[in-house]
Amino acid sequence: MNPRPSFDLLAPIYHHLERITYGPFLHRCRTAHLCQLAGSYRALVLGDGDGRFLADLLRVNPHIHVDSLDISKGMLTLARRRLDGSPVGAHRVRFVLADARSTVWPDAGYDLIVTNFFLDCFSVDELEPLIDRVAAVSLPGSLWLDGDFRLPAGRWSRAVAQVILEGMYLFFRLTTRLPARRLTDPAPFLVANGFTLTSEFTWLRGFLSSRLWMRRGTIPP
Ligand SMILES: C[S@@+](CC[C@H](N)C(=O)[O-])C[C@H]1O[C@@H](n2cnc3c(N)ncnc32)[C@H](O)[C@@H]1O
């Protein structure tokens, strides 16, 4: 297995870095499908970072219970603090400090999986087994929300995106020991696990997209 990345150093400034580089776009991407998540009951949120998405999810969905798993103690501390200071229901969240590549999941039977700006942290040989393992604890009919960077279809936008991604991967490799060297599209692995794309929003000519996937079958009563 590749060495463990650590986002602890970046955690306190992550929000600011994001605002300086992408303005409001990353948070728009994370939250674009929030309304469609109002009917979920049990979520596994992977690599949520400083908890901004989590706070919004708890706000729109008053009955959901969440396992929020991250490898960074610094990120989890920020997320916990954010919820402590808000009335949205910190008691509905279980924070788990663990490496998603090897951990035994805290539970099974999730009807919602969230991987915003998380799957881009993995090399192709790590991504496939990770998605297989996560899919195994999702219920038939469950939703999988994945907001992330993508390689646009257009020739010029794709070339520009490739240059930006090279710079981003270099930056994260130096600051967090991120093992991934390039972006891998998770779509084929989700499809192989029975997920179908139900909705997608894109920004910046397709460089950013929020995809909502649904697993075949119906959620048991
Ligand atoms: C690029 S940040 C994205 C944070 C947040 N999801 C967002 O939307 O900005 C990646 C997050 O995934 C976490 N992470 C990276 N590799 C991980 C792993 N192997 N297991 C668990 N969490 C991991 C990092 O600590 C960090 O919080």
Describe the structure.
The protein is α/β, with parallel strands linked by helices and 221 residues long. It has a single domain (11-215), classed as Rossmann fold (3-Layer(aba) Sandwich). It has seven helices and seven strands; from the N terminus they run ααβαβαββαβααββ. Strands 3-2-1-4-5-7-6 form a seven-stranded mixed beta sheet. The termini are far apart. The relative contact order is 0.17. The mean pLDDT is 95. It binds S-adenosylmethionine. The site of S-adenosylmethionine has 19 residues, from strand 2.
Distance between the termini: 39 Å
Strand neighbour order, sheet with most strands? 3-2-1-4-5-7-6
Shape: globular
Q: How many helices? A: 7
What order do the helices and strands come in, and which of them pair?
Layout: H1 11-22, H2 25-31, E1 42-46, H3 52-60, E2 65-70, H4 73-84, E3 93-97, E4 110-114, H5 124-136, E5 138-149, H6 155-176, H7 187-192, E6 195-203, E7 208-215
Parallel strand pairs: 1-2, 1-4, 2-3, 4-5
Antiparallel strand pairs: 5-7, 6-7
The structure holds S-adenosylmethionine.
S-adenosylmethionine is lined by residues 5, 7, 30, 47-49, 53, 69-72, 75, 99-101, 116-118, 121.
